[in-house]
Design brief:
This protein has 237 residues and is an all-alpha fold. The protein is built from eleven helices and no strands. Helix 1 (21-37) crosses helix 11 and helix 5 crosses helix 6.
């Protein structure tokens, strides 16, 4: 009989390798401008504690933050904490979150995560990436949002559709996979800026660099953007 192999330790998630010179230059030019535009960025989801942010982030998958913020007041009034949420009747929960889309799967994740928090973590949302990833419905993006905004821990960079789009348009990453984009951005930005970098890219994507109609003519980053769709106007001497 073959000897039992020892359990392999999980490989830590690390930033990508040394970024190429073009990406580094782009970041060094663009990052100060993003900080000027959004000096104190905040999460687009409304929350009062880590549990509320966890649930709101699960709901935000393929749904806008605006819509989630319309849903959560009634949801948290009815189920204010993990213990209450863990005992929620699935049909009632689904009705409350119906407009977020994919309500059946999201309700299942919310119930599963709440029960695990109560049964295994004393009713407190875990504050480490490794443990958060064990919760139903939680992947790296959700865990990074919770850690960065509820606990002030920069463990990763939340890569949503806005971050994916702007990373490509601004020349910060040539990858399309969110995991690879996250690694690229982590290699460019100092750890203490990871959460806010995600927020700044998201807000710029919402307000200016929209998916279908980017407002390049109003964009402070346009002179340095390789993807701008309007020519720069150079004043006559």
């Amino acid at each position: 009989m073959a000897a039992k192999q020892p359990a392999r330790k999980p490989v830590p998630f690390e930033p990508g390798g040394l970024p190429d010179a073009a990406a580094r230059h782009q970041f060094e030019v663009i990052d100060p401008l993003l900080k000027k535009l959004y000096p104190a960025p905040r999460c687009g989801l409304d929350f009062e504690n880590p549990f509320q942010l966890l649930i709101a982030t699960i709901l935000s998958a393929q749904c806008t933050d605006v819509r989630v913020n319309m849903i959560t007041p009634a949801l948290f009034a009815r189920f204010p904490d993990p213990a209450a949420m863990a005992e929620a009747d699935p049909p009632e929960l689904e009705k409350l979150i119906y407009t977020a889309g994919f309500y059946h799967n999201k309700a299942k994740s919310i119930l599963g995560a709440s029960k695990m928090i109560v049964q295994q973590y004393g009713g407190e949302v875990p504050n480490t990436m490794a443990v958060l990833l064990k919760l139903p419905g939680v992947a790296r993006k959700t865990a990074s949002v919770v850690l960065g905004n509820a606990f002030g821990i920069n463990e990763g960079i939340a890569v949503d559709t806005h971050v994916t789009r702007l990373s490509a348009r601004l020349g910060l990453s040539t990858n399309t996979d969110p995991v690879k984009i996250e690694r690229d951005l982590m290699a460019l930005a100092p750890r203490e800026d990871w959460t806010n970098l995600s927020h700044r890219l998201i807000w710029h994507g919402r307000l200016i660099c929209e998916a279908k109609r980017p407002r390049c003519e109003k964009c402070l980053l346009a002179p340095h953007c390789p993807s701008r769709i309007t020519p720069l106007v150079i004043p006559a001497p």
